[in-house]
Batch of 4 targets.
Target 1
Amino acid sequence: MRNKYSWMLLGLAVIVTGFLVGKHYYTKAYAQREIDAFVSEQGVPSKAIYDEKMVWDWQKSGDYIKRFKVRGDSADIVYEYLFIAGTGDVLFMPYSSTSAEPDVKYPPEKTEDDFNLYYGEAYEDGGSSLYVYHLKLFTGVESGLDGGKYVLHKSSDIFDSDGKKIDVDEIKKGDKLKIYFSDEVAIKETYPAQIDGEYIFKVVRE
């Protein structure tokens, strides 16, 4: 009887071990695909990548980590990507032995989450610029904008509520707008105040 239970326990241990090993390799392959997709969207050419390594931080975080260097960047800069196993997110965390904040040649593409979202309203029809007021911070960090009138010198990256690109002259007086501003916004103290397009990620007509 004892031998029977020993064999049962051994069989169970083999099954559990096989499951865990299989899960690890499946997750690692998935992490590899997700990181590679992130790198591709970032615009890093595959032929420029060297010293590539993929590791699993099994002792601490349980995350999968990919590291490599890029031709054209300083040799001390390492591109590091973390695949967070719990959430499926990919984080880009470059590091360097000579700089706390390395200036990489291929920074990741900016998204809405990198900007401060304001709600506003057009007070005139759009022409070559946008005319907005009633700005109110919705998410992000306060950028020093108040409820006054502004001329936004932005003629591209303007969308309707369905995500379709529209021209600036399609914005009409009274349209409700979502505007994504960078953290540091330079305001020209005229009347109305003016903001250059470089400080605006995109505008969405609701």
Note: Residues 2-42 form the longest helix (41 residues).
Target 2
Amino acid sequence: MNFLRNHWIRIAYLLISLGVLLASLKFKGEVIGNDSYLNEFSYFGVVATLIALLVAVFEVLHSVHVSKSIRDEARNILKQARDVNGASFVSECLAVLDEANEHVSGERYVLSLKCFQHFRRTYLRISGPENLVNEIDGVLGDIELSLQQATHTSPQAPLGKGKRSKIQKDILNIKRCLEEMNPAKRGEYVSS
């Protein structure tokens, strides 16, 4: 049953073609035997062939147009999917940076360093404007180095307030850049 539903057009033109073939065999003698019938048949055959050729050409052009429309829509959907995927990575990075910043505030530098390293791995999946990427890339190494140095502090030799403040300021600056490069800003993806 599925076969008939999927191929009904092919079956229809196969049956019509068989009907035309049988009719041509039945009336062969009458058409070939009379010159005026043969000329008339040839004339209408040429006209039908030209019409069929025009229909075929325009159907091909229409198919090309439909294919291009489908391609453009697929590209648009793929771009939206990439934007949503990028937005989820940005969101994850922002959450991890918040956690890292919270650990810095609580002087839990080992946990902050782990969060920051997780952020760096996730951040690699995000693309954005070159100026923002360069701004973030410029401080990544400094923050990680500062956090690694902070892991070696002790209550007797704590991390200085200025150094801790600089780490937090740099983390907040990264968050600002990430929010600016977020591909799914409010209002762009309204459900329809």
Note: The two ends are 36 Å apart (CA to CA).
Target 3
Amino acid sequence: MSTAPQQLAAPSLMALSRAVDALCQLPPEQMGASRKKHLRALEGAFYRAMEKHGLTPDAYDDLATLLGPESVNEFLRLARSGKVRGDRKTAEESDAQLRARIRAMEIIAQHAGVPFKRPEMPPAPELAPVVPPTSRALLLEHFQGQVNRSISEPFRVRFLAMYGIVLDTGASSGTLAKQHVAHLARDLSTVRIQRPRQGRMAEPPPMEEWELSSATRDALNAYLPLREQLTKRHQQDRQHEQNAVKHLWVSLEHNTRRLPDGTSVVEPPGMRLRPRGVQRVFFRAAEALNDEMEQLLKERNAPQAGTEVPEWSPMPTRLEPLRRAVDDELRQREDEQGGVPQVIVVRGRSA
């Protein structure tokens, strides 16, 4: 149901609300949660723009005029200046936020069958350089050495297992967040993953099965007992299957999560990690490595997994540059082997 203010009864806004309601009722495989969130945000922003600033005179008429060039340009001008935000902030909206607004308009126009002339998109940021092999290996060696010596806190145990999956498969944060324990082979020799839907794909990508390295298997053997301990309290009531935590990656501590209606809930440890939670794991790991490497560089001769401290450039705190580096190498390996894929595609299964 629409969450936009209801005091305005302009035909265009009523049509906008109907379109957004219909799109948000689509199943997840047709319209993802993130896209639905952007649609709702756009709906609320148009209401605020109309209520406080008026837009153009004909923007009140119908959805076609609301999404017409003059109305849209005025809306984007207001958005750029931070005047239609729904979070009570006054900061200007970023290029990324404006691009999301425009994409949401396109989806609504297409759904409603009204013409839409897309305005010029704000420039997309340049892709961050991928993480070089030396840095990736050092990150693995740094955490692996601590876990192997049993001096690592749970965060590092979980990260090492997650990092191993990324190195073996090039999985994204969204892919990792979807993984279930059942996607692992019993002997941990393989893992099944499903990539996110790209663009407006009619069907989800097929399930893939990847062979896991010995380092990743060792990391999972350390993490899975920890996961079992964390999720135990949620699985005592076997009468309700939905209470069991099936996802592979779970939280280590209490988390506060904001619901779509604006309310917040506190979740206990052992609950599934969502994509943002996965991203925070990699952010924390990169920060920890960077801080500890800076300290080692100051000492210079301090032992670090039995080797000298190498020349160091800080590790990016985002997962995406790391994932793209692994993906590039997996594709290159496939090309070198005559196009023979390293992945076993298991068709007919769903996550």
Note: Residues 5 and 47 are 7 Å apart (CA to CA).
Target 4
Amino acid sequence: MRTARNVLCVFFFALLCVSGVCAVATAAEVAFTPVSPTNNQTDFPVTGSLRWSITVTSGDEEISSSEFTYEVYLGSSSQNIQRVAGPGYASTLYTPGDLQVGRTYYWYVRATNGEVTATSDVWAFTTVAEGYPSAPYSPDPADGATETAGDISLRWSPSEGTGSEGVTYTVYFGTTSQNMTVPADGAGITVPHLTPPQPLKGKTLYFWRVEATNDRGNTTSSVVWSFRTMEIDEPLSSGGCALGGASPWAALPLLAGFLLAARFRRRRGGN
């Protein structure tokens, strides 16, 4: 009897599926990324902001992350993390405002859009030690930027807080993250910007980082940033001479036409 009942249940369920009543739900996958500080960063400024990003997919479909709100959890031990923002917090940036120097913190984020709820891993960071400048941050061009112009100026937010007195900067720049060098005028900088070596090549990936050194000789480095330049149109030239970006030989057919026209007019005038 039980077997017959099970068969009927399976038959009824199959009938509903054929009729389009039932549907198989695909679970959404949420990927969290700690943008700043990066996980286990050891020189985070005490005045810094926590930033993160999420990517949400359901099968092959990407769900807009703009519909999500958050809860932010933060604590000075992995066993004592408390909610400091939310629920309903709408930004992917949170500034604690009361971090202590030389201390390790733990944090995570919970995201929801009413239908999907997910929680990130627990991340950790350590604030910059007392007597050291905070790490330069907020690069311009932004980290990972594409289609960047070739005549840019590298900019960053300067070190701040205690330990940042008399700070000068050193910029490292290159086309690989393992082989960056200090360009001309790239050391002993007193302002938070530098024009990189020119000209930058088009469609090229560049890497850079900034070291901050205070008047005590203590140095703190930023993380490595990168950007990709846009395609740059370079004028054609011949022997250092160019006409409107084209070779001067391109003007020969036009010049020959003028000469033939002048000769034809002279002949007609002679008749």
Note: The longest strand covers residues 50-58.
